[in-house]
Design a protein that fits this description.
Blueprint (H helix, E strand, L loop, with lengths): L2 H16 L4 H11 L7 H30 L3 H33 L15 H18 L14 H14 L7 H11 L4 H31 L6 H35 L3 H18 L1
Length: 283
Amino acid sequence: MSFIQIVILAIVQGLAELLPVSSSAHVIIAEKLMGLDPTAPNMTLLLVMLHTGTMFAVIIYFWQTWRTTYFSSAKTFRQNAFYIILATAVTGVVGLSLQSIIKHVYGHNAANFEIESLFGNTTVIASGLAAAGILIIFSSRFHEGENEQGQLSSARAMVIGLVQGLCLPFRGFSRSGATISTGLALGVTRKRVEEFSFALAVVLTPAVIAKEGFRLFHSTGVTPALAPSSLLPMLAPSLLGMVFSFIAGLVALRWLSRWLEQDRWHLFGGYCIFASLMIFWLG
């Protein structure tokens, strides 16, 4: 990979991962346009580092807000931790169940079938983008909740976790777009659901990184003990990508917060639908 290709992928990942427009869809299309193989070991390592960069961007951006919202008292911390754990548990059940169903239907329960084999399917990507766009536009028509009615509850956390689980196997169906839209439709305030959506992302991202890391070891055929010497030549470009994805992630989060505050959330939905039509057209 060239320097410019790494920078492009890092910026695309950093922006699209945190904006409600599906990073997977944009990264896959960018890889295809640049003639890169997403299954290559260097691409897998780069993806791991890009996810790490955006995770750090989320932590830095929301840290002060989370301190006020989640750590103001022991009671508040326990309550919010419960909501996050509850939503994540529902996500795990739904996501793993869907992946099992997909493996049974499309992979015929083959031992070597991986859900990632469907990631390059442009029809799946375009359909996911269209679904996310419709959900975003639909949710933007709901009035913001107020006072107690605009806060989270166990039921709302479970529904948000369920929708997040639907996003896991379907590339193009934006996680942030779906979870924030679901919260808005349920009457949760914009600020509260944004904080909660990205708190869920920080919890979920290490599992995604670990999964991609496992795929990396599997694809290179090396053991963890031999990994440092085998992966060292690929490490510097990936670290560079992580830095750029971190910077792009901070820009994306500021952009998202502004449009939520300024009642422009529906514009992300319009972009998703436009992007899905373009992908359908390009094939």
